[in-house]
Amino acid sequence: MKKFLQRHSQVKKYAFILLIAIEFLMSFTFLGYIHIPPISITFAYIPILVAGCFLGIGQATFLGLLFGLASMYKATAFYVLSSDRMFSPFLSGSPAASLFLSVGTRTLFGLLVGLAFFLVRRFFPYKRLGIGIISFLAPTVHAAMVYTAMALLFPRQNSGGTSTFMLDLSNVFATLLCVVLLQVLWVLYRLPIVRNFCSHVNQPTENLRGRNPLYIAWGIFILFTICAAIASSCYFANRMSYMLTAHGVTLTSEINHDLLHLQYQFMIAAFSLNFIMAISLMIIYKYLSYKTFLSELDGLTNVMGRKIFLDFCKKIVSQTSSSQSCFIFIDVDYFKNINDTFGHTAGDKVLKQIAQRLLHNFKNYGKIGRLGGDEFAIILDQAPSKQELAQKFSTFEEEISDLLSASHKVSCSIGAYYFDTPQDFQTIYAIADKMLYEAKERGRACWVINE
């Protein structure tokens, strides 16, 4: 699965961003903390486990850092219990100790989780069993690290640390939740439909049609959400202060601080929720964009169809920055005779093989399209030298010569036109077409490149 993830960098990026937003959402809402007597459960560390299992050590460590920062921020309020003030460098009286307790232990926990999952992926033959063991131990390890740090750094204030290791109802629930969730995610991620979805999301379709305005709209939406969340938090903090004053409650500076503190928590949670929605929409958009792109591929050869290829060409030739590109026409020689002699099935096979050879030789330089029938075209936005291009044409002609049989040589006529952008596409198209017919007039099975 690690190799699959390495081939899907876009999927990893989106997943990591989603986990960051989920971590904040869980840290600042009831989703990460549940207190229903006699059960009191903390599982805001679940995104850390997911990142360690599916992404990597660095991502799990970073999420551990965010978890710790969120815990530290929540402890920096005057309404928290005295025991919770140990987590705040501003209220505990020991800033360095509190920083390590709140942030250091959670960051170290993320590092250990990421390392444990890495070792399972790399060396353990039974992956699901290994994931289950780590998920089972993670809640206890997290609690043990925090309570041990509390006992060492704040020995006078710490009490009840030994309860961390007791198998109470809270620990059982948290452990079961971690184990079940990670196992379900593992099974889901290995489903073919999920892998196919990830493959579609990972494809960079924006370079085929230009960056879609949806990206700009997405950026505007995020900026608007941030501004709206900040404005609403400040407004409601002010209105709550006014309301309490109107009811005769005297507001001290500490109360005002706590009101604003709570509103900032609400702001972060609201922004995280909106961010999750925005990223989810972006993922769906990427998936649908690639589905649309696949529908516009040539059904026989699997290269770009005429419309999408010509749209891409117009985008390349209209670039405002000056660069040398090359447009190429390829026409299969005597293709009608191939169909008449060997049948249309053999003709289709020849077209498929030619398309594959073109992709093999030119995909690193540009895009290949089928314009119709036996006509192909290539746009090279990273054009090699004319000498190198001639060598590639020679290699290509040699590769396709024996596609049918030793007695019937397959060849192509090729016309190539080098040009500097920007330039009118119709002019380029007409000149390259002229080069192609010049190659045919020379006897076919050759190429013509403009001087």
Topology:
Layout (H helix, E strand, L loop, with lengths): L1 H5 L2 H19 L5 E4 L2 E4 L3 H9 L2 H19 L19 H29 L3 H27 L15 H21 L2 H11 L3 H4 L3 H34 L6 H43 L10 H12 L6 E9 L2 H8 L1 H19 L3 E7 L2 E6 L5 H15 L11 E9 L4 H17 L5 E3 L2
Parallel strand pairs: 6-7
Antiparallel strand pairs: 1-2, 3-5, 3-6, 4-5
Examine the coordinates and then state which fold CATH places here, giving the name of the CATH topology of the largest domain: Arp2/3 complex 21 kDa subunit ARPC3
Number of strands: 7
Low-pLDDT parts are 1-7, 160-167
**Widest sheet: strand ordering:** 4-5-3-6-7
**Main beta-sheet annotation:** 5 strands, mixed
CATH architecture descriptor name of the largest domain: Orthogonal Bundle
Q: With helices defined by DSSP (H or I, 4 residues minimum), what is the helix count?
A: 16
Helix proportion range: 55-70%
Summarize the helix and strand pattern as letters. HHEEHHHHHHHHHHEHHEEHEHE
Structural class label: alpha+beta
Top-tier CATH class of the largest domain: Mainly Alpha
Count of discrete structural domains: 2
* Radius of gyration, whole Å: 31 Å
Question: Could you tell me how far the N terminus lies from the C terminus, measured between alpha carbons in angstroms?
Answer: 50 Å
What portion of residues belong to β-strands? 5-15%
Mean pLDDT equals 86
Characterize the overall form: elongated
GO molecular function: diguanylate cyclase activity
InterPro entries: Diguanylate_Cyclase, GGDEF_dom, Nucleotide_cyclase, Rev_trsase/Diguanyl_cyclase
Organism: Roseburia faecis
Keywords: Membrane, Transmembrane, Transmembrane helix
